[in-house]
Amino acid sequence: MAKKKKGPADARMVMEETMADINRLIKDKDFASIDELNNYVNNMMEAGDIPVVKDDMTPLEKAQQIIYQAYGTVGKERVKLARQALEISADCADAYVILADDAGTDIEKAKGFFEQGVAAGERALGAQMFAENAGEFWGIFETRPYMRARAGLASCLMWLGEEEAAIDHFADLLRLNPIDNLGLRYMLADLYVQTDEDIQLKKLLRNYNDDSSPGLIYPKALLAFKQNGVGTKADKLLIKAFKSNKFVPLFLMGMLSMPEEQPEHLAIGSIEEAVDYVVASGNIWLDTAGALEWVVDTFLDNYKF
User: Fold this and answer.
1) Helices 163-176 and 144-159: crossing angle, nearest 10°?
2) DSSP code of residue 106
3) Full-model pTM
4) Buried/exposed code over 271-285 (b: 16+ C-beta within 10 A; e: otherwise)
5) Per-residue pLDDT tens for 256-267?
6) Helices (H), 134-162
């Protein structure tokens, strides 16, 4: 066994790597009870000193170890490590995710890498995983590279104007993981608005009824406007959306200018949250006839200066 030194990787990837290390460490141990297992894991986590079991690693596990190292680097070094991982295992979906990210603004190129990542993930997981664990995917950390690759593919399809294909991927990812740790429901909501899938949007909003973030509460108001026009129901929902984040209408109306760079941290109700929403979803308001005029009128009627 060797001790692993943690690099400056994304905290989520560090935690995922830790989970993988622990999983390999405990898989052959015979614990008398769940409590004994939990105590064993908790003690290691608190100590912050988790040994890495390198014996009997599969080629994919070895490749994924390199990927965790890659996520702690940037630029050419990250790409080099991703290609190194693929030399060890062609089923390493995360390696394709890194190569896709490196494609930058070349969406077609990124799409190709994401497609390879999805295929790699499907091979690695096998049909039985999909049949037996739908609805719980994110809780099984081995599925996460596949989900990242497929979410990336869906996003590329959305940007390329292939809305129906993107919808199919996003909707199925939510079926596999309804908790939606990747926040895919927000992009799916926008796609339902763009494609006039009002029934599906209504169902999606009902499934995540407790979510009051701009990514769902603003589309909910827009759906009411599309179905009923200006009036009490739509106006009430829009005012509720304003209250959830008061900066969104200011950006939509051009009263605030968008920053040159997108924010990294999004506090609830903050200007950064509004920027994130408008960058991702402002187009659905521009493309819905009369929507911006409705925002202006409702805003001016309810906020006196």
Assistant:
1) 160
2) -
3) 0.85
4) bbbbbbbbeebbebb
5) 998 887 777 788
6) 144-159
Tell the residue number behind the tokens 């919808």, with chain if given. 167
List b or e across 168-181, with b for residues whose CB sees 16 or more CB atoms inside 10 angstroms. Answer: ebbbebbebbeebe
Beta strand pairing status for 51-52 and 2-3? antiparallel
Tell me how far the alpha carbon of residue 40 is from its chain's centroid: 31
Q: Alpha-carbon distance 33 to 50, whole Å? A: 21
Q: What is the DSSP letter of 33?
A: S
Q: Is 92 left (phi over 0), alpha (psi -120 to 50) or beta?
A: beta
CA distance 153 to 177: 17
Query: Which pair of structure tokens corresponds to residue 197?
Result: 């899938």
* Residues 276, 166: Cα–Cα separation, whole Å: 20
Instruction: Please tell me the distance from the alpha carbon of residue 276 to that of residue 233, in angstroms, as a whole number.
Output: 26
d(CA 135, CA 173): 9
Q: Give residue 6's pLDDT band: very low, low, confident or very high (50, 70, 90).
A: very low
Q: Can you read off the two tokens belonging to residue 182?
A: 């990747």
Q: Please determine, for residue 225, whether its predicted confidence score (pLDDT) is greater than 50.
A: yes
CB atoms within 10 A of CB 119: 16
Rounded distance, CA 25 to CA 52, Å?
7
Confidence of residue 165 (pLDDT cuts 50, 70, 90): very high
**Model confidence over 188-203: pLDDT tens digits?**
999 999 999 999 999 9
Which tokens hold the place of 255? Answer: 């009263």
| Cα 145-151-157 angle, rounded to 5 deg | 140
